[in-house]
Amino acid sequence: MRRRLPYLILSALLALAVLSGCGEAGPAEAPSPSPAPSPSPAAAAPSPTPTPFTEPLTEPGGPVWFDGKELPDGRFRRDGTDYVLLSQAAEALDTEIKISEDGTTFTMPWRRSEVILSPGRGTALYLDTERPLEAPPLLCRNGEDLLVPVRSFCEAAEIGVYDDEELGELTCTPGTGDWELKPNYNVCVMMYHGIGSAQPEANLILSPHSLEEQFRYLNEHGFTSIWFEDLWHVEDIEKPIILIFDDGWSGCYRYLYPLCEEYHIKATVALITGHIDRYGSKLTSEQLEEMRESPWLSFYSHTVTHDTLSEIPDDRIEPELRDSEQWIVRFFHREPVTLVYPTGGSTPLVQELTRRYYRFGVKMTHPDVIHQKAWTSYNTSDDPTLVYRYFVQRQTSLQHYAMWIEYPFSPKGTADPQEEPLPQSWFSG
Question: Which residues contact 118 (CB under 8 A, 6 or more apart)?
């Protein structure tokens, strides 16, 4: 036992030396904390879901024409109201729609103003006047177009509407709308008949050479050839003149049509609708099919049979006006603006019915011209159903033609019919 004690003491001393060489023993380090768990995605606030654009519920409503052009999608029906796409109506009227940045206002430039509409608003603003609509416009096509109630939209924009219930078609014609006719403007109105080669005594048939000579005069002397439907802005037109070719003779296709195209002259053919395709000397539907594409020709009514309206029984007058109007609407997809009275015959009843179906009624030569008391012209303050004309015949010289058409636009008193008397027979026919 005594031998082992020194050995044990030595071992303990060596152990203490080793421990003192490593430095002081500190307290044990705490374990590293575990990272905090990330929040679960389910805890984030949900993003709002956009409300999808809903197209209004409609059903097909049938064909519709604007100024002779058929709208591609026709019209739509909802709750008994007929609608059309505003963009398609505007395109047919040679204009376009503008949409406000917030999509709440649709504007269609029209004539000298604009039509302003909004979805859900029951009025249209035109010429600074709020005009009622039969139903509010409906937003469609993802907010980029508007469905407008066609009848009241046309009424608000002063566009005429012809409702053909038999065919289920609507025909919308700007010229037949209730637009304002500015008063006290002179307009020269001329009466022609056939064009072609004929014996000199055939005074109703004007030679193509004479017609071309007259057209050249119009262009060289500052006249503006127009139709009656252009009178909505008569105050802007320099020396307006209206050329009407009665009866629908075939020479209108052979001579008038190409001359209008060449000289850019507007002219009107007054059609006896019951004569089309029935007489070799009159226009055919095939010729009219081609002529209706011309921007220089329009077509008015000269009744169905050409019977003098002041001489037939009263119960026959309205069918003459109504049925000829219907034929023209169905063929040209435009409503005729004017009735040309056969042989100029009219009565108060004829005029009353004319106002029902047309805007203007045209007679022949004014009595003052026939009796050579004065030159006359149509003035926009006159009764629009009593429009008188100068009668251009085969024997009418260019000199007399120029006197007639210059008179309405010359200072009063500078033209005297007594200076150039004309044969009485020149004013009949």
Answer: 104, 105, 106, 137
Which among 265, 291, 248 is positioned nearest to 68, based on CA atoms? 291
131 class by beta-carbon count within 10 Å (0-12 exposed, 13-18 middle, 19+ buried): middle
CA distance 240 to 234: 8
Contact (Cβ atoms closer than 8 angstroms) between residue 270 and residue 222: no
Round to whole Å and give the CA distance between 259 and 291. 12
Q: How would you classify the pairing of strands 169-173 and 160-164?
A: antiparallel
Residue pair 369/390 in contact (Cβ under 8 Å)? The answer is: yes
Domain 59-176: which CATH number of 1.10.760.10, 1.20.120.530, 3.40.50.620, 3.30.457.10: 3.30.457.10
Domain range list for the chain:
59-176, 186-427
pLDDT tens string 191-246: 999 999 877 668 899 999 999 999 999 999 999 999 999 999 999 999 999 999 99
Whether residue 172 contacts residue 163, with contact meaning beta carbons closer than 8 Å, is answered with no
Cα–Cα dist 391/364, whole Å: 7
**What are the CA-CA distances from residue 35 to residues 39, 40, 42, 178 (Å)?**
12, 15, 20, 83
**Measuring CA to CA, which residue among 382, 332, 96, 337 is closest to residue 230?**
337
Q: How far apart are alpha carbons 279 and 363 in whole angstroms? A: 25
- Which residue do the tokens 């100029």 mark? 344
Tell me, which fold does domain 186-427 have in CATH?
TIM Barrel (3.20.20)
- Fold match between 59-176 and 186-427? no
pLDDT of amino acid 11:
45
pTM score, two decimals? 0.84
At residue 36 the predicted structure's pLDDT band, cuts being 50, 70 and 90, is: low
| Cα 362 off chain centre by | 24
Rounded CA-CA distance 102/121 in Å is 15
Query: Taking the C-alpha atoms of 303, 308, 314 and 317 in order, what is their torsion angle to the nearest 10 degrees?
Result: 0
